[in-house]
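Dear colleague,

Following up on yesterday's call, I've attached the two folding results inline so they're easy to grep. Please treat them as preliminary; we haven't cross-checked anything against experimental data yet. The first protein's sequence and structure tokens come first.
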Amino acid sequence: MIDRSTAMRWLIILMINLAVLEIASFLAVTGLGIVSPDRRWDLFLDNELSGVSDATVSNFLARQYDTELGWDNVPSSQGGARNILNAPWIATYDAKGARTSCMAAATDDGDAIIATYGDSFTHGDEVNNDATWQCALERRIRRRVVNYGVAAYGVDQAVLKAERHWRQGRIAPITLLCVYENDLDRALNRYRPFLSPHTGAKLGFKPSFRMIGNNVVFLPNPLRRDVVTVKEVKALAVSLIPTDYWASSAGRVLPNFPYSMQLFGTAFRATERKLNTLHFSDNIWDIPEGRDVMLHILGEFAGVAKQYGTRPVLLMIPDVSRWKGGRVAPAYKTFLRTALAKAQPQLLTIDIADFRFDEREFNLMPFRGHPSAHGNEIVANAVLDGLTGAGVSVLDATRTR
């Protein structure tokens, strides 16, 4: 039996060791900020938010900010930029925020035969209004194909936007949900710099879906209009670290007590990522959380579409930049063939990777940038072939308006 004095000695020794460990961990965290500032969350966020002012936050809240979706196209506006070829391109939006149609008489989306939702590969980044695949499709079927793509969207935001439009009565006979190969990564992300450091989307807060316990849980957009300063933006980002997949799996630490737990937790998660464990993998389509979140989102898309009387169609767009050495199976291929085929056998899926085309001509530069005008023609052909092959009528190309 241990007497009281012996127990006290052991307790004192334990406390001294813990204090030494904590002091050493504090020094390690402090040194990390000097040697590798990117590994400290506070310094990482300072770097990400450099160049962002309170005025920047105010301007974002007044224009692109969307309470539900995070951000959206600005109705009745025009934006310009230069693409990867250093050529100028213009994106113009109508009064409802859709990118300008190539149908001369189109004034709204009420006469659309197809509505499209997705990210920059849906929006048509880096090409002018008349070179998007929606315009290429319009020229073939001579009916409105409305483009509701938004740059940097995740599949979660795209579905939420479609559902909003359906509630508003803006329902096309066919709704295309367009998913780029990397879009599922974004569904588990709440603040864009956590997923894509050095991104231009410094205020890219968004809704997301996460697995909590055995359930897929919706996490709403965390950014509210009362967050008006850069300091508040940084504090909000820090608060999201535990619930953002990419932040919680990153090898970064906060300079907070207990410092030892910060280091141990970071080391453990970084090791899991390195080993591609069950919970952390470079291919989000392979892990249970990625699969279950995507099945949940697509199940909601298909189910709600049926309620509103629109035909849901899933359009998959591969990351052709990965095909430099020859075609490789997209990261989502196994998911489509197994999980989705079993869970949603009636959901029509069109995969651009299933079609033959010269992959060197798909992007603006060989395997770089967004689809070129030619690449957008490839997408339009695939959509039309996929719809007609499945017996989905989009009217014949001779019909005039």
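Below is the second protein, in the same order (sequence, then structure):
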Amino acid sequence: MNGIWRDIRHAIRGLRKTPGFLAIVILTLGLGIGANAAIFSLMDQILLRPLAVHNPSALVLLDGPGAFLGRTTNAMTFSYPMYRDLRDRNEVFTGVLARFPFALTAVWRGASERANGDLVSGNYFEVLGVQPALGRVFNASDDRTPGAHPIAVLSYGYWQRKFAGDPLVINQTITVNGHPLTIVGVSDRRFTGIQIGSAVDIMVPMMMKAQMTPTWNDLDNRRSRWLNVMARLKPGVSRTRAAAAMTTDYEDAVAIGDLSVRLLRPSEPEELFAVAADD
């Protein structure tokens, strides 16, 4: 013990003789502690807090990691025809939604800026259980005909940042990727999207795909996978039962192969409910 204290005293005397080095040590420790605190805060926000949707534990994310012949834009994606089959031919989900993130340029009163956009299915907000903070959100009738639904819903954060929370923004026109869209609503204050750690600014109906991404459309191309698909389990339906039903019910529609089941938890976003799919 005496040896330890002797070493400590020796170290302190040495640091006193080199005040510049001492300052660097103190600064380094401070930065390290500050960085750890910042990282923990970020992890708390991203991993430990649930999605701001109704009953997030009932949501599952469908994944298609199997062999595939065709175009794949992102991981965990389906083509729009595959999504439509999953949405319309199931007995285990109360609803199945689709979403595609895209970069956009928004023009408002002559000023343009880059923003984060999501193309979403008409049932997106209904399946998630997200209500509007202002105006309204999309419904199924807003997403029926390609190119026929030039409307947008703003996220609450974007509304505050870009429009200073002005309620008169409803029914005003914002130009997105060169196309005028009517703002019909602002989403719930807590809702920032379904991709944890990435906030969406503007949401547009899926049927506006050709206008929002003019270099490619692929709404009717079964061999082009670009959609994230999420579903809400019916009450009393387990993930195991849902996975089994996917194999049985959708083999002809979407050629689903071997199953890999992982649980989507808001606190553990890396754990996903996965259904291996081929086309």
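For the second protein, one point worth flagging: The longest helix spans residues 19-48.

Best wishes,
A.L.
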